Amino acid sequence: MTTATLPKRSSKQPSLPLKSMEETTTSAGVCTCHGRPQVDLLLRKSKVVREGERALSIRDQEDRGRRWADENGYCVRKVWKENLSAWSDIRRPKYDAAMTAVLAGEVPCLWVFALDRFSRKGAEAVVPILGRARVIFDYERLDSMDERDRRWIIDRAENAREYSQRLSYNVKSTKATQRREGKWLGRAPFGLVVDPGTRKLRPNTAPYMCLVKGQKEVTPWEVIVRVFTEIAKGTSSRALCRKFNAEGLRTGMGAVWRADAIRSIITHPVYEGWLTFSPSGGTAYTDRKHFLNEKGEKVRVVTPDVLPDMIPAELAARARRVLSGNQVPSMAPRTERPGRVAHSMSGRMRCAGCRGAMTLNGASYVCLRRADGPQACPAPATVSRAVIERYIVPTWSDQLHQANDHDPLLVAVAERWQALNQPDETQEVADARAEVRAAQAALEQWHSDDRAGFYTGRSAKYRIPHKNAAERRLDAAEERLTELAGSGTVDLSLLVNGRAHEMWEASDPIARRDLIGLAIDTVTVTKAPSRGVRFDGDARVSIQWAEPEHADADRFAEAA
User: What is the pLDDT of residues 261-291, one digit of tens each?
Assistant: First the structure.
């Protein structure tokens, strides 16, 4: 079967003849100022670099379109500008609007610089306009309303589609090869730079601008290390943002630090030296997953000599567990800071009206949102510090005295008591338990993604490798916890034999706060029924007692 070859059109073909105004326009398509028919300009230049510098710019296209309109007796009504690809999976609202206008007769003519600027979908994009709406393809000198141009338009449109498909295939093949070699293809994340020769990443140690005069300058990589270190120690993302902003530090885009920026850094595997990809094609850091090669192995994006300078895996894992709430920072004894008094109930008080915090204001704990109006808290609670302590401390002491050896409360108290008094011995166990929880969450996330159809299409090849990796992580975490979980016991005789209240009375403010925290997580107080009424703790107070971090009750319970 032979294919007919169309003769080459002469580049010296004269400008397209115009039909009469009555044939091409309606009253709605005539310029009221000049009485000329109107034309819309559809301008497009792809953001993708592969089109090169020779692609005509948006400004040059517009200048050419306006010259065409002047030479052919048209008046430009609207200019539709696009800076994106024209392939089939790209939404083009400006293109859709321009096509709707010309097909509906709102404007009698649409001008496009060239067929490949119009669409890369081939014949399916141009057939609907043939003989129905006037679209001028300036570079090819083709008119969709001219019968002689129909076959030319279809042929050129198919050529543009074929070129785009071939280019897309070549680009995907090249990128796949580069990823297998561990090359970073985009802009480097904050704190890292790309070696232009190898496309490998390394820490950015260039001076980092600081906006506070006299403040010591740091490098972007020092900021990244500080993010992981402080989050792993228990600093909240919001508190860390306040520190950075107060010091005049800014993000890579020059913006102030926000909690989501901290989270995106902590969750990004690239800071450990791993190559990542975005399954959805987006650019958000939180959407990043490990890139796996054909063997299901993760790929390094740094050279071996740079790897020791990256964030250690242990530090990154701990920071992510703390940030996600799977691990509570170390409960080692705290020292009182100068000028700040620690009170036994501070940080544990909650208002029942809004579930928000209650802070110490003078001699009373008051709802933090009481001044924000009824929308913030419909029933702001207030309670005297002395009154709430007189109710909580005996209740706390009685609860400890009545608990048996295997009571979950006593197990939780034993865990926290050991963490307070032997922090070095319990930290490894706490890390192991937190890693188990994080591994379980990762495996549950895989099942959730699988049910949602996440591993379909191009991501299907990652389904089994990601599942196996999540299961191996959980197996290793459980094995490590079993190895560390010995048969050690904790002596709680001073607390459970009715002497808890006595210990509390003999302790300083910091120790009292820690003792209460052994068994109580939060104390929720409701608003008094009326002003001046006598305090009724049983009616107004709800206590959330501590729960153990693991299910093995026998490890910690030994009462003398």
Answer: 898 899 888 999 988 877 655 555 555 777 8
Whether 500 and 361 map to the same domain: the answer is yes
How many CA atoms lie less than 13 Å away from 277 in the CB half-sphere?
Answer: 18
Same domain, 355 and 496: yes
Whether 316 and 413 map to the same domain: the answer is no
User: For 153-221, where are the E strands, in sequence order?
Assistant: 192-194, 201-203
CATH number at residue 228: 3.90.1750
Same domain, 129 and 197: no
pLDDT tens digits for range 334-353: 444 444 445 778 888 999 99
Whether residue 356 sits in one domain with residue 320: no
- DSSP 8-state secondary structure symbol assigned to residue 77: E
Q: 3-state class of 382 per DSSP?
A: strand
Give the Å distances, CA to CA, from 530 to 38, 384, 533, 536, 538: 74, 15, 6, 12, 16
Distance CA 54, CA 57 (A): 9
Most confident of 148-152, 174-178, 413-417: 148-152
Instruction: Decide if 476 is inside a domain.
Output: no
Residue 411's domain comprises: 349-427+481-558
User: Which long-range CB contacts under 8 A does 480-487 form with residues at least 24 apart?
Assistant: 480/432, 480/435, 481/429, 481/432, 481/433, 481/435, 481/436, 484/428, 484/429, 484/432, 485/429, 485/432, 485/552, 485/555, 486/555, 487/555
Residue 16 lies in a domain: no
Would the pLDDT of 541 be above 90?
yes
CB 546, CB 413: distance < 8 Å: yes
Nearest by Cα to 291 from 373, 200, 182, 199: 182
pTM above 0.85, yes or no: no
Residue 439 located in a structural domain? no
Do the domain assignments include residue 339?
no
Residue 218 pairs with which residues in a beta bridge? 208
